[in-house]
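**User:** My hope is that you can spare some time for a protein that puzzles me. I have put the entry right below:
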Amino acid sequence: MKIIHSYWAYLVLALLVIATINAIIGLTQNKEFKDKDLRISLFTLIVTHIQLLIGLGWYFMSPSYKAIKEVGMSEAMGNPGLRLLSVEHPLMMIIGIVFITIGWSKHKKQTSDKAKFKTIAIFYGLGLLFILSRIPWGQWFSQI
């Protein structure tokens, strides 16, 4: 489950970067919001939600979760590595996915192409920043 979660994250990040850059380009170049743009944004939304489900499944099977149950939350908060994996990473990923979901929902209500691109760029960009801020890079690269 951990391996699936780690490798699926590459797809999430790639699509999230592509969707954000696509929206920024569409916004700055005053492009028409076409089916391709819709599909990129939608596929990114779907892939991030699948990652959330995989991540939640892994969280409750992980050694970090078991450690919290054993030592308690106050001990976990005192250990930077355990805090990252058991609290910061899951919380920031959920917040990032919430921003992406809000961006998808808000863009559908926009009537102009520029507003659609702007909404996707802002919310997917914020989601990307939250996600990048708490990826356990050291552990992630050690899996390669």
